[in-house]
């Protein structure tokens, strides 16, 4: 197998503290990116699976709040149960990247308070598909493809200045920032800008890592393809992970910027900061960081072995024992088959399993099993999420989610059964 080339941010021109920044205004020429050849062994070996998936449940899993009784119409778990697509806005295509540093830290951006979505939260780089730059994908197409990959790499460049390219691209600060602004304002396509500077977007190195679909009745809905991207371990000695200030150039000026900072931290550090209230993470970001946390940490410096372990986890099917409970039409446990779906193909549309006051006093329990109404209603659907875990979170109207935990689904049902035995009412 031939070696690959990735573009990574360089410190070679003494701008270590601002290597992600659009705030550096020096006219001195420097290398924005350094092309580094590396063997495929520096990243997880991820194999495409030809497995035929067991048909996943079309159970919307709305939990006791929805059922209200010990018996219910079985049709609620069939095609007729899904909300009509005419009632809810179709999800808009978007893409996001978990960028992994040479030492296996994860990049998060802090959103400003005035952002239209995820205000004040820490998020992965990403955004909406733009047909002008990325190509056309049907709004009901919930599959990884080149359009989503183009969008993921373009958005990362616009938001951070990081250009994920197969070949070296060396430009000045001024040229880079002007390029970000021109791409953002559609004055030039992202593909043309990269090509004009000798680069090639590294879409082949993006690794699919779940898809998330905003559940109805949200007014803004998205079908977001998540990716992993590994900066080469071999670049660790020349790569800075110091916090930096960034902004997205916009025609309106600085007041319209979307992000205020970018930082690299290990998954456990991000999770700890979220649980202490130091930062805000929404369930998708918290959940994905939780999945990465057993593999990426500072316990040892063998970064390649850490990545290999994650690669084995991502490739493994089944993803669990398959002994995790869901619900049938009679409010009784049944075995889910989402464990037959690899992580690259899992589709998650969170749904309320227990509302505040039912199982926990303030927290909501979110099921991650359903792929959402659009996919769940399809005849012979083979898509689904994660029936092994649930999210427990307290939602504050003004401040957003807090106190997020990832809990074993069986533990949740054990607690519910205990409440029932004590005479708890639905």
Give the spatial strand order of the biggest sheet: 6-3-8-7-12
Output the CATH topology.
Nucleoside Triphosphate Pyrophosphohydrolase
Q: Could you state the order of secondary-structure elements as H and E?
A: EEHEEEEHHHHEEEHHHEEEEEHEEH
The number of helical runs is: 10
How many independent structural domains? 1
Report the average pLDDT across residues: 75
CATH homology-level superfamily:
Nucleoside Triphosphate Pyrophosphohydrolase
CATH architecture call = Alpha-Beta Complex
Radius of gyration, CA atoms, in whole angstroms: 22 Å
Largest sheet: 5 strands, mixed
Q: What is the oligomeric state here? A: single chain
Domain Nudix hydrolase: 90-287
Cofactor: Mg(2+); Mn(2+)
Pfam family, one: NUDIX
Keywords: Hydrolase, Magnesium, Manganese, Metal-binding
SSE arrangement:
Blueprint: E1 4-9, E2 33-38, H1 63-67, E3 92-100, E4 106-111, E5 122-123, E6 126-128, H2 131-134, H3 146-160, H4 173-184, H5 190-196, E7 207-213, E8 222-230, E9 259-265, H6 267-276, H7 283-292, H8 303-315, E10 325-327, E11 333-335, E12 347-348, E13 351-354, E14 364-368, H9 373-376, E15 386-396, E16 400-408, H10 409-421
Parallel strand pairs: 3-8, 7-12
Antiparallel strand pairs: 1-2, 3-6, 4-5, 4-9, 7-8, 10-11, 13-14, 14-15, 15-16
Helix pairs in contact: 6-7
Please tell me about this protein's structure.
With 426 residues, the chain is α+β, with helices and mostly antiparallel strands. The chain has one domain: Nucleoside Triphosphate Pyrophosphohydrolase (Alpha-Beta Complex). Helix content is 22%, strand content 22%. It contains 10 helices and 16 strands. The protein has helices spanning 63-67, 131-134, 146-160, 173-184, 190-196, 267-276, 283-292, 303-315, 373-376, 409-421; strands at residues 4-9, 33-38, 92-100, 106-111, 122-123, 126-128, 207-213, 222-230, 259-265, 325-327, 333-335, 347-348, 351-354, 364-368, 386-396, 400-408. The strands form 5 sheets. Strands 6-3-8-7-12 form a 5-stranded mixed β-sheet, with helices on one face. Helix 6 packs across helix 7 (283-292). The chain is globular and about 70 Å long. The termini are far apart. Mean pLDDT is 75; it is low at 1-84 and 248-256.
């Amino acid at each position: 197998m031939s070696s690959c080339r990735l573009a990574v941010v360089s410190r070679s021109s003494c701008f270590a503290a601002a290597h992600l920044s659009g705030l550096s205004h020096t006219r001195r020429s420097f290398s924005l990116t350094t092309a580094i050849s590396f063997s495929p062994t520096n990243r997880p070996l991820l194999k495409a699976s030809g497995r035929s998936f067991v048909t996943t449940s079309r159970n919307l899993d709305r939990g006791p709040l929805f059922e209200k009784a010990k018996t219910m119409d079985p049709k609620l778990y069939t095609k007729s149960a899904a909300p009509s697509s005419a009632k809810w806005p179709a999800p808009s295509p978007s893409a996001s990247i978990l960028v992994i540093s040479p030492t296996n830290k994860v990049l998060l951006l802090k959103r400003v308070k005035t952002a239209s979505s995820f205000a004040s939260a820490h998020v992965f780089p990403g955004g909406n598909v733009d047909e002008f730059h990325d190509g056309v994908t049907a709004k009901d197409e919930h599959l990884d493809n080149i359009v989503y990959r183009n969008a993921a790499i373009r958005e990362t460049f616009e938001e951070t200045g990081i250009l994920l390219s197969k070949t070296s691209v060396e430009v000045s600060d001024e040229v880079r920032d002007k390029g970000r602004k021109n791409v953002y304002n559609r004055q030039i396509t992202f593909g043309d800008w990269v090509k004009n500077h000798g680069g090639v977007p590294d879409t082949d190195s993006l690794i699919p890592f779940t898809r998330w679909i905003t559940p109805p009745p949200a007014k803004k809905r998205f079908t977001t393809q998540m990716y992993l991207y590994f900066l080469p371990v071999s670049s660790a000695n020349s790569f800075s992970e110091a916090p930096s200030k960034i902004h997205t150039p916009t025609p309106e000026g600085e007041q319209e910027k979307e992000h205020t900072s970018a930082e690299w931290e290990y998954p456990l550090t991000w999770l700890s900061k979220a649980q202490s209230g130091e930062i805000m993470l929404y369930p998708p970001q918290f959940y994905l960081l939780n999945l990465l946390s057993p593999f990426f940490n500072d316990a040892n410096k063998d970064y390649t072995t850490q990545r290999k372990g994650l690669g084995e986890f991502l490739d493994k099917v089944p993803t669990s024992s398959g002994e995790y409970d869901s619900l049938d039409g009679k409010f009784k446990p049944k075995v889910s088959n989402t464990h037959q779906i690899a992580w690259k193909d899992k589709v998650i549309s969170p749904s309320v399993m227990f509302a505040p006051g039912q199982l926990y006093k303030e927290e909501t329990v979110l099921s991650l099993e359903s792929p959402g109404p659009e996919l769940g209603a399809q005849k012979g659907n083979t898509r689904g999420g994660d029936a092994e875990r649930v999210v427990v979170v307290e939602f504050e109207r003004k401040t957003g989610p807090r106190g997020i935990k990832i809990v074993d689904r069986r533990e949740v049902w054990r607690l519910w059964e205990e409440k029932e035995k004590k005479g708890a009412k639905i």
